[in-house]
Specification:
278 residues, globular, alpha/beta, seven-stranded parallel sheet
């Protein structure tokens, strides 16, 4: 009987941390690895760079904000591979401090990509997760619960009763408050990126609860990770860590960790999401 080859997928992986994650998986993951990108030419260029290192990732176009793109990718995976063993949700955006767009516009776009895009991919690909599969949601130190100033909002995000529809309503309220210029008044603070990553972290814990409760127990693990302050386009190359150092935490969760529903730091330590950091 022919054994089924394992499959890993990394979103937003033509550069930066995602690229380094793919590189690490190509070396250490026992199976095929998909590098994905919105832009086909950039994705193929990234694949060539890895080919030049003797690595052989697969490529498929994937725009997490485009339902048709996500559906096409999901159908491709189902038809050609049958299932998924590892999904790393890395794709994200962040506006620069000097961005000219009004905060309400920044908030809407950041939540659209970082939260709703991640959710869209999960909804499409989770049915394809095989037994003992792993999901890694790349969050941030900005995705720690205590970045939200309002105790009332923190309580809502941290509730064991929070589900995806309720979390989505919180994200939508942040966008609405931001468009009205009331984000600070309503207790959100003044960082759209932080709220989006708190959303991703909270989504992680919800997803683990759902997998734990499913009748057909696939033993799926879902964890969030802060990759550190990394030298990438997103940080305007101000981060002190290399992309390989930024990939360390995600690769730890992907390949080595036996954790479920945790928030992990770039040094691979488990950090309490709802408590003050030392």
């Amino acid at each position: 009987m022919t054994s089924i080859k394992k499959l890993a997928i990394v979103t937003g992986s033509n550069k930066g941390i995602g690229f380094a994650i793919v590189k690490g998986l190509c070396k250490d993951f026992d199976g095929d690895v998909y590098l994905t990108a919105r832009d086909v030419e950039r994705g193929k260029s990234a694949v060539k760079a890895l080919n030049d290192l003797g690595l052989k990732p697969l490529f498929h176009q994937l725009d997490i904000t485009d339902q048709l793109s996500v559906d096409n990718f999901s159908n491709h995976i189902k038809t050609n591979h049958g299932g998924i063993d590892l999904l790393i949700n890395n794709a994200a955006i962040a506006f620069k401090n000097s961005a000219p767009e009004p905060f309400g516009v920044q908030a809407e776009e950041t939540i659209r990509v970082n939260y709703f895009g991640t959710l869209r991919v999960c909804e499409a690909l989770f049915p394809l997760l095989r037994q003992n599969s792993r999901v890694v949601n790349v969050s941030s130190s900005a995705g720690h619960l205590l970045v939200i100033p309002s105790a009332e909002l923190r309580s809502k995000f941290n509730s064991d009763m929070l589900d995806v529809p309720s979390l989505t309503k919180l994200m939508e309220k942040f966008v609405k408050d931001s468009k009205a210029g009331k984000q600070k008044e309503e207790g959100w603070g003044n960082s759209a990126y932080a709220v989006s990553k708190v959303g991703v972290s909270a989504l992680t814990f919800i997803q683990q609860r759902v997998f734990n409760a499913e009748s057909l127990n696939r033993n799926v693990s879902v964890n969030a990770v802060h990759p550190g302050y990394v030298d990438t386009d997103m940080t305007s190359h101000k981060g002190p860590l290399t992309i390989e150092e930024g990939a360390k935490g995600p690769l730890f969760l992907a390949l080595n960790a036996d954790l479920k529903g945790k928030y992990v730091w770039f040094d691979c330590s488990v950090v309490p999401w709802d408590q003050k950091l030392n």
